[in-house]
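Person: At home tonight, work slowly through the protein below, taking as long as you need, and write a paragraph about the fold.
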Amino acid sequence: MTEVVPLADGNVALVCSATRAGERLVLKLNPRGHPEEELVTAEAAGLEFWAPTGGSVLPLDQRDARMTLLLERVMPGDSLDDSERPWEEKLEILGALVARLHDAGPPPRSIPTLDEYAALWRPDLADDPGLLGELDALVATPGDDVLLHGDLHPGNALRGAGGWTAIDPTAIRGDRHADIWALICPQAPAGRIRERVEIYAAVAGLDADRALARARVRAAAECSDWLSRAAVARMR
């Protein structure tokens, strides 16, 4: 392995470009002892599972119990986030990419479930009985079991030779309507929320009402300040 150079600052991992036998690759190093290590190591399993769809970056090698990954380098690799497309068009691209990943079939049972992850949100929703009840209703009617990307926003979609490619998943299995990070991404413009949900849901093959419910609950759980709660209120 030669020419190992950091690409960018990640939220968790150190991501570098590298060369092996003349081929340009990506080396991703996750820290050991991460509090969500089970989710971190599920990334490799998720990428392996999605490989036949052509919708995600290909894993080439791994070590350190799947905490260190060698990945395909997507070329030219421009992110959807950096494009000048309107947000509605970005939602259509992400929705189509999500649908492609979901069509891979029943996910490996070894991958953590959405319900296990969502249980951690309950304390954050404790002061809002309506949202807590909405979470309970979603859990009680889980829908079909697919492998979710969990973090598919415009920065995690790169332009490759064959189209758009997903990277950096938080691979988790559960209700397909929970793959809604594009709807609550910090870069998403405010306003016209229902319209944007319907655009995304139509392309992704989701029920718009259920996708909106998932977005409300996750937005509230992810952020506890009053501004985010105001944003959740606008989703109702």
Observations:
- Residues 87-102 form the longest helix (16 residues).
